[in-house]
Amino acid sequence: MAVQQILTADDGGVWRLTRTDAGWDRLVIAPPGSWPCANPVRDLVAVSVVVPGRTEARSNIMLFGPDGHFAGGAYQSPAGAPPVIATRIPHYAMWSPTGETLSFVAAGSEGLSLYLSAADASMTADSIATGAPLFSAWNEDGETIAIHTGQELSLFRPADRSRMPISERAIGFRTPAFIGDRVLYARPQEPGVMICGYDAQTGQESEHGTFAGGVALGRAGRMLSVAVTSQPDSGVFDRLWLLDPSARDESSPSLVAKGPFVAAFWSPDASKAAIVFPTQSGDGRYAVRFVAEDGSPVAATEPFVPAVDFRTMLGFFDQYAYSHPLWSPGSDAFLAVGRVGDDGLAKSFANVAPDYVLLFAAAKGVPVERVCTAEHAFFAPAA
Q1: Domain-wise residue ranges, the chain
Q2: How far apart are CA 346 and CA 339, in angstroms?
Q3: Digit-coded pLDDT (tens) for 215-233
Q4: Whole-structure pTM value
């Protein structure tokens, strides 16, 4: 199995890196753009591109094939609409698990909107939801997408454009999580939130216990990952739990890690989590603790200063975990983008090293590998 990375280089070009015995081979697969998103099945990459204009900028999502050829457009921002969601974030894109459909959030004419485009260009920029904030997750067969916008959670089936409302009190979380046919979400219940489930096949609703604070939900194999914060506006989490949604209602969760931490990413085999935490050194450095599913320590990294786009991923780790994998397909390595050691603290200062792709082995005693300079990077789906 070839280990590959997709990255945005310093000049904005999009590269594919492939691990070889001699190091990493580089292939340019797209012209300057940002936030590339690799199709999990097809050799296709979606790239956000902002094009300046005489009167206003326009943004596009473009598809590129394995040799860098243009394979079609998925979106162009309407005239008069904002070309980006925020600084350095033109769009948020995520492929369905089957690779047939690209879902993406953009600042459309009616506000923040969720769109669908087909990989074969048979459908382009079909608007299916509008509102803010806006988060989503595909089910495992790619037939249904859960949409959380504002306080509403609904399920949408692209095949027949049917929509099923699930809750009008979906509060206290961001991204829903699918485990099997069940979508997991949260609703308010003192002292914090209740974790709820809805089975899209049977219509059965379920409750899985309360947590004392806001939560960020994720998938860890067939288990639900629940990061809990007592101060939702701080971006810092206090506890990480695992919960079995197939067990009886309100089953007891197991504690995996204590905070403070800012993000938790589960490995593809769900055997361990990468917990990103501030080092409390006062200079913006973070480090990663690798812990097993039972909470036992595996390894830890040296401190690093995250790059700007990597900070964005940390701030919305529950959403980006579905679209931009930071774990290797073999669950043995985790990557970040930033600076370590004496690389310098602020890239904006002159005469300091740029950001690097930092490859951390999830094992004790293995030094960090500086792969190459980059703005942003993630692992490609298993080849």
Answers
A1: 168-259, 262-383
A2: 9
A3: 999 999 999 999 999 988 8
A4: 0.95
